[in-house]
Amino acid sequence: MVQATALPRNEAGIETTMGILKQQFGERFQTGKSIREQHGHTTTWIENQPPDAVVFPHTSQEVADIVKVCATHKVPIIAFGVGTSLEGHVNAPAGGISVDMSQMNQILAVYPEDLNCVVQPGVTREQLNTHLRDMGLFFPIDPGANATIGGMTATRASGTNAVRYGTMKDNVIALEAVMADGRIIKTAQRAKKSSAGYDLTRLLVGSEGTLAMITGITLRLQGIPEAMASARCSFPTVDAACQAVMATIQYGVPVARMELLDTASVAAVNAYSKLDLPESPLLLLEFHGSEASVAEQSATFGEIAEEVGGTGFEWTTNAEERTRLWKARHDYYWATMQISPGKAGIATDVCVPISRLAECVARNNDMIEELGLVGLVVGHVGDGNFHTTILVDMADKDEVSRAEEFVGRLNDLAISMDGTCTGEHGIGQGKRPYLKRELGAATDVMASIKAALDPDGIFNPGKILST
Amino acid sequence: MVQATALPRNEAGIETTMGILKQQFGERFQTGKSIREQHGHTTTWIENQPPDAVVFPHTSQEVADIVKVCATHKVPIIAFGVGTSLEGHVNAPAGGISVDMSQMNQILAVYPEDLNCVVQPGVTREQLNTHLRDMGLFFPIDPGANATIGGMTATRASGTNAVRYGTMKDNVIALEAVMADGRIIKTAQRAKKSSAGYDLTRLLVGSEGTLAMITGITLRLQGIPEAMASARCSFPTVDAACQAVMATIQYGVPVARMELLDTASVAAVNAYSKLDLPESPLLLLEFHGSEASVAEQSATFGEIAEEVGGTGFEWTTNAEERTRLWKARHDYYWATMQISPGKAGIATDVCVPISRLAECVARNNDMIEELGLVGLVVGHVGDGNFHTTILVDMADKDEVSRAEEFVGRLNDLAISMDGTCTGEHGIGQGKRPYLKRELGAATDVMASIKAALDPDGIFNPGKILST
């Protein structure tokens, strides 16, 4: 485990707060060790820092009640979705109350004509899409995990089809939120666009529970396209694959997904899934549109790929065949876990301008080799975002230390290329030192905003900013 | 003229500041009456409140120098692009220094492979697009006026093709800005997406010069599409036109522009431009894509339109014919000005969920009639955003008063429909009372942010917030 710094605890305040909340919430207030540990962070190599209690509100007003109690007694309050975040976001370094949103899981309204809906924060991505399917609608953001909409909003999540549909910042229309004084605000109306004052919606999207508790989300939706095509193509080098990606985007092909697997990743899925893909960089693509449009998009990509040396290009709209073409991606996680059973997979998350992507991946691979590590690359290549999974024996202190060095060097490399240390996972606890290196004095402006909106620092302390 | 409230002036501070700036900027520091009045607001019915001086910086460091002097002496500082904003944004109710960005008009870098560029704030939209054309690129946001990129950023502008390309919030990747203490920050790197901390980029987009001075803008660009098609179609009612719009968007047709003219507007352009369009609601459309794709998009729209009673549908990719089809829109402004020569045209800017648009336009027209006014509607209908132009004799106090009542009732109507009092023009001075009605307690959160980032209130006082 990588150690997370503990922060000073307000024992008296925590005790008083727990007494009050127990009275109000009864069985919906829990203090068992395992439930508390489950609400500290478990999906990464960052040490678990459990909260003192977990409370399960049902309404925005109940969240406001909790915030008021915690504010009065200056006790930390940490929003929890399903716990799939990756940088220690839900840890409780100063103790306090975890507010589990899983019982605030109502889809409050769907407006098919307006292509939007209003949900509570505990609604999961899959729950929402199941609900929408019969209306011919879907919510496009897909970070992989079946995260909650609240959690995805708080971390500014994106994923495989951000290249076409954007990230959470582009798909949240308005928020309801509880501020540090317990007031419930709405950040915007349901109109598709607005120039009415400061964009509080996007200030809260990606704020990781440090400025407010998100209690309602108005989301943009999409009509389910008439046709979806999947495609794949191998390339001699990552650089050639990136050339194809840049030309495709510049040409205006509205690709829905465009995923890169490097040679090591392709080898891993070949071994795990008994595939016989050429062991060279692979692009997997998805196109959305009318039957004619996805055929044209596929053909255009095929021509572009061929010009830069792409081989084995295949595309299809047949559902079974689509699954077959994308098998390498669907099995990717399990394939990486298979390489060194027992080792943990540690995910990085850099994002650079696409023109620098091939160079960044090449230097990433050099660093892996120099440090004697095993690492694989999968990338949301249309956005210049890639994840290196480093396989680490957590009992091997030297390997952990080399992995930490790798993560640091990769983040610094991305920053030096005008990129970011986090394309979609957020800062949490793990990336705080890099935020300052990336944005310098802007982090002081962030700290001013934090101090203005949460003067006692009750919301998710120890995250994003170093204070 | 509609009166704007004057705010207390800091005479001593202004005098000292002017002396210091005159020394540093020489001929680039101007105090003539006409140049000052030109830098107060002139494009609306809001009274002109000229600044005390106008200064023309060349660099971000010079802007920082100006801010530091103004901060030391607590003197207002107002950013100025080309003065096309519509709600009194550049007025100086407490006097102070107008910072004219017109000489900071360098396109600093274009990255064709990354589809982005970096510009100074005084670059105009047309200047940028002229520069980009030979590279096969364009910047899509088109608010009509040849505004500066800085001004468009500050007001969160959008316009006719926001339905496809979004608003400024979706097309600014990063900003350089001077904060109230004179520090220069960058809000993000040039990577296409990021989850690194609070979204300061979008906090400044739409902040109307009240939180910082924007000195550099990194913009997303688009490849010029292979083909553009224009189309038009008449409808029996606004409701039928809106039904066609909703179905088209829901079907996933990626329309680039979709403009509604109501019957009064069509009559006006028929008279002015000698057209013989049926005097009923008209939709004008534009499609971007490959030759095959724009043909398919046009055909799909044509079928949808026919189902709801659309008539006279025409589409073309021929450049001359495209101009002919859209003539009604291109001549729209002049056609409205022709109806009652000498009267001023006052523009409203409400935006509602599309499902409420037809009802909102109908009630808009009822109110115009009840108040004995002449008004015409043009709408960015794919976004639910429309502008009513009210023709007002500014010497007729009663007409001015009825027009003011109309604007207020229309804003309140939009707000009651979960819409906004401003889709794209911003709050400025003119819409401050409606912001509170629209967003309630959220405006207090905005005020907290303002107080934290600009404690002395030097940046564009009297705008957005009531203080």
TrEMBL record, chains A, B:
Alphabetical keyword list: FAD, Flavoprotein, Oxidoreductase, Transit peptide
Cofactor(s), names only, from the UniProt record: FAD
Gene Ontology MF term list: D-lactate dehydrogenase (cytochrome) activity; D-lactate dehydrogenase (NAD+) activity; FAD binding
Entries under SUPFAM superfamilies matching the protein: FAD-binding/transporter-associated domain-like (SSF56176), FAD-linked oxidases, C-terminal domain (SSF55103)
UniProt keyword Repeat present: no
EC number: 1.1.2.4
Pfam family, one: FAD_binding_4
Family assignment from sequence similarity: Belongs to the FAD-binding oxidoreductase/transferase type 4 family.
Name of this chain's protein: D-lactate dehydrogenase (cytochrome)
Organism: Sedimentitalea arenosa
